[in-house]
Each structure stands twice: as C-alpha cells, then as structure tokens.
C-alpha cells in the first residue's frame, strides 16, 4: 500500500456513540433486564401461593335416577305361572272297537268335524241291518191296520154271512115241518129237539158272522193301531241307536285346533267304558286337541296378595322362553275357592294377542296393573336411586344432585326399599345423584364428576 493511502485511513474516525455501542451494553440496560426477570419470578410465586391457599374442587361419583313410577310401570302384583289351553279336549270313543285307521299326527292342525280315526265297523253294520228289518216289519203291520179291510176280505165276510143265513132259513123250515109232524105223532120228541138245536146253532152263526162283517167294515180298534205305532217307534229307536253306534266308529274333531297328543295307534283297542294301564290294554282316548288361539296363564296367587287382583284386571304377560315378547292379558277367571294346602287362589289370565310362540305348559310371568292409566298418570313420579345417595338431616331425607358442575340439594320422600335401591319421590327421571360425599357439600358448591375408567 502506498504512503498516500495509509494517510487517508488514519485521517478517518467513528463517532463516540457508535464506538460505545460497539463496545457492549451499558449498565442502565443491564438494570432493566434484571428487574424484568425479578418481576416475573415474583408474580409466579404469588400465583402459586394463592393457588395453594384456594379450596380444592372435590370429585364425586354419580348415578342416574331411573323412573319406575306411573309413566313407566305401575305394577300391583307380579305372579308366575304357566300357559294352559282354555279348552283342552281328550277325544274319546263312544264305542269299544279296534282302530282301523288314524290320520293325524302330534302338532298337526285340524278343522272342526275333520275325520281323525276310524274303527272296525263290521258288527255295527250288522246291527244296523237287523234293526232296519224290525222297523220294516212294524211299519208294514201298522200300514195294514191303518188301511182297513181289503175288498176281497169284505166280500168273503158277506159271502159267509149269506151262507149262514141260507143255512138258518133251511133249518127254520125243517123245524116248522118237524113241529107239525111231531104234533101228529110222526116224529118223536127227540127228533124235534135235534131239529130245534140245529136251528138255534145256525141262528147263532148268522149273528156271529153279522158282527164279524160289521167289524170288518169298521176296521181295527184305535188301541190296536196305537200298539202297532208303539212297536214301530221302538223299532225305529233301536235302529237309531244302532246307526249312532255305527257312526261313532268314525271319530271326528269336535273343534278346530291343534293335536296335542296321539294316544292310540292302528290295531289298538279303544273303549268307551274303561281304560287299562296295562300294555296293549284298551285306551281311554285317541287324541288330545286344543285351540291354541285361546290360551290362558294359570297363576297361583298367594292369599296375602289376593286383594290386589280383581276380575277384568289388565296385565302384561312375558315368557321365560321369549323374554322380549310382550302379550296383553286380562283376568278372565278367578277360582271360587282357595287352596288351603298351598295358601293360594288360582287365577287365569286370558291372552288377548296370542301368536305362534305360545305353547301349553310354558313358564310365564304376569305383571298386573294397579290402576287405569288415567288414575295412574296423576301420581307423583317415582324414581330408583342408590341407597348411598340418600342422606338425612334434621329428620328430612335429601339427596345431592350434580347439575352443570354445581351441587343441588333436593328433598325426597322414600316410597319403598328394593333390592336394587330406594324408590323415592321428589326427583326427575335421568338426574345425576351424588353417591360419594367426601366432605360437607352445600347448595351451589362446585364439583367435578369423576370419570369412570
């Protein structure tokens, strides 16, 4: 570098302020920085102290109050029983005979008057034919009496009478001649007596035939016709009985329904008089039938609870086999006498909306309504709460309710104690009641609901 250039550089210089900034921060700036740090630290200490001295917000456990009162279920009594067919019919035979044919199976639906069983009928047909012959004979005899004499019979009676009259006339002439000759001494007294006797006999014969002709013209007596009618009626009765016995060999369904049991097989003997428990013995019935659209629930209500039920009372029916199905029911029958051994009264509930799920002998539960809906709706709401949520103070019962992060105190009235809690009035359905109280809470206190893991 030349001597002129060095001289120029040495002649240049910076201002004093620029040199001081380039040298580092002043003591005034250091004071501001230290003061700011101290202020922040002091504020943090004050905030921490206030936080430690402020009360801690308690955490609580809550449970939901569930309505079980008038708008959910108003049960006067719950009873268990079983399904029964209202009319179960054991179809028996009216006559004793051997099964020739059976045309139904268990569980099959049948219509009224449908043929179920046929019995062997040879001997019954023979009895009908014999009775028909007796009826025909009695009917012919009655018709003979009622139709009167035939013309030939009347002509024959008149001819016999004419002959008798001619004989009597001849006898009279002979008698008159004999009397004259006897008076002259020609004939003896004995000869006169003989002629006289012949005349009298012919005279009696004429009278008899006159009466017979009269009877033929009159016809049979009313009593004889009545007796003939009685004989005919008796014969017709025997025919009707024989025909009914023959008809009874065809066993028909008395109602439309379902076959519950089939107790006879082809070749077995069925009887109308007695049943045998021995193998291959005569059976007392052939099938059991019932209308499953007319089912009922048979209940044994304890006598101590009997006052809670009444005729036509409504209830809800549920089945153990199908718990999700609900059926409407109404009490249709109450036994007129109690069972002293069980201490119960039998009640039967008519199922109003039956379906294919119902089976006789299924277990069922019936919950009876206490009152009609109009009356029930006026009752205060009853809710179920845990026992731990109810407290007592100054003789009054109350619960703590959690609402929007605050405590509400609600006075309640205990209605009943149940296995799953207390039934109370004074709360609404769905309110959160506090079940764990770690300190004395009061109206309006702030709380935090503990979340369940």
Compose a concise summary of this entry.
This protein has eight helices and 25 strands.
Q: What does this molecule look like?
A:
With 453 residues, the protein is an alpha+beta fold. It folds into 4 domains: 3-52; 62-71 and 379-449, conserved putative lor/sdh protein from methanococcus maripaludis s2 fold (Beta Barrel), CATH 2.40.420.20; 75-87 and 291-376, Beta Barrel (Elongation Factor Tu (Ef-tu), domain 3), CATH 2.40.30.170; 128-241, Helix Hairpins (Orthogonal Bundle), CATH 1.10.287. It has 8 helices and 25 strands. The strands form 6 sheets. The chain has a 6-stranded antiparallel barrel with strand order 4-13-16-15-14-17. Helix 4 runs antiparallel to helix 7 and helix 5 runs antiparallel to helix 6 (189-218). The radius of gyration is 60 Å and the shape is rod-shaped. The protein starts with a helix and ends with a strand.
Query: Distance between termini?
Result: 84 Å
The portion of residues forming beta strands comes to 25-35%
In DSSP terms (H or I, runs of 4 or more residues), the helix count works out at 8
* Largest beta sheet: strand ordering: 4-13-16-15-14-17
CATH-scheme architecture of the largest domain: Orthogonal Bundle
CATH class of the largest domain reads Mainly Alpha
Number of strand segments = 25
Secondary structure layout plus pairing:
Elements: H1 3-11, H2 16-23, H3 27-53, E1 59-60, E2 62-64, E3 66-67, E4 75-85, E5 88-91, E6 97-102, E7 109-110, E8 115-119, H4 122-147, H5 151-183, H6 189-218, H7 222-247, E9 250-252, E10 257-262, E11 269-270, E12 287-290, E13 295-302, E14 314-319, E15 327-334, E16 344-351, E17 363-369, H8 373-376, E18 382-385, E19 390-393, E20 396-403, E21 406-411, E22 413-418, E23 421-425, E24 432-434, E25 448-449
Parallel strand pairs: 1-25
Antiparallel strand pairs: 2-24, 3-18, 4-13, 4-17, 5-12, 6-8, 6-11, 7-10, 8-9, 10-12, 13-16, 14-15, 14-17, 15-16, 18-23, 19-20, 20-21, 20-24, 22-23
Helix pairs in contact: 4-7, 5-6
């Amino acid at each position: 570098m030349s001597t002129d250039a060095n001289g120029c550089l040495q002649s240049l210089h910076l201002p004093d302020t620029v040199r001081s900034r380039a040298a580092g921060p002043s003591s005034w700036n250091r004071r501001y920085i230290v003061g700011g740090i101290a202020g922040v630290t002091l504020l943090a200490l004050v905030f921490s102290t206030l936080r430690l001295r402020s009360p801690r917000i308690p955490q609580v456990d809550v449970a939901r109050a569930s309505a079980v009162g008038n708008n959910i279920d108003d049960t006067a009594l719950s009873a268990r029983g079983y399904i029964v067919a209202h009319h179960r019919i054991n179809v028996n035979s009216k006559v004793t005979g051997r099964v020739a044919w059976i045309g139904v199976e268990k569980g099959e639906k049948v219509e009224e008057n449908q043929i179920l069983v046929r019995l062997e009928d040879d001997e019954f047909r023979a009895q009908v034919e014999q009775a028909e012959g007796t009826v025909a004979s009695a009917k012919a005899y009655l018709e003979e009496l009622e139709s009167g004499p035939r013309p030939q019979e009347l002509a024959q009676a008149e001819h016999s009478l004419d002959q008798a009259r001619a004989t009597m006339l001849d006898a009279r002439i002979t008698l008159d001649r004999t009397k004259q000759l006897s008076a002259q001494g020609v004939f003896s007294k004995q000869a006169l007596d003989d002629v006289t006797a012949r005349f009298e006999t012919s005279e009696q014969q004429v009278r008899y035939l006159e009466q017979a002709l009269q009877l033929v013209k009159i016809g049979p007596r009313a009593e004889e016709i009545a007796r003939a009618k009685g004989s005919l009626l008796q014969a017709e009765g025997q025919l009707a009985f024989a025909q009914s016995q023959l008809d009874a060999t065809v066993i028909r369904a008395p109602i439309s329904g379902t076959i519950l049991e089939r107790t006879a097989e082809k070749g077995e003997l069925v009887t109308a008089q007695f049943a045998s428990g021995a193998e291959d013995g005569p059976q007392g019935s052939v099938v059991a039938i019932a209308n499953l659209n007319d089912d009922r629930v048979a209940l044994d209500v304890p006598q101590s609870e009997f006052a809670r039920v009444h005729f036509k009372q409504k209830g809800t029916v549920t089945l153990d086999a199908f718990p999700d199905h609900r059926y409407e029911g109404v009490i249709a029958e109450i036994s007129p006498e109690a069972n002293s051994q069980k201490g119960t009264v039998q009640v039967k509930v008519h199922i109003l909306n039956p379906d294919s799920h119902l089976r006789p002998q299924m277990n069922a539960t019936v919950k009876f309504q206490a009152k009609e809906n109009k009356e029930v709706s006026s009752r205060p709401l009853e809710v179920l709460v845990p026992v731990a949520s109810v407290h007592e103070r100054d003789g009054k019962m109350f619960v703590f309710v959690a609402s929007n992060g605050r405590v509400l105190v609600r006075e309640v009235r205990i209605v009943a104690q149940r296995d799953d809690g207390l039934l109370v009035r004074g709360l609404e359905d769905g309110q959160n009641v506090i079940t764990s109280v770690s300190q004395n809470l009061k109206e309006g206190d702030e709380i935090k609901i503990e979340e369940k893991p």
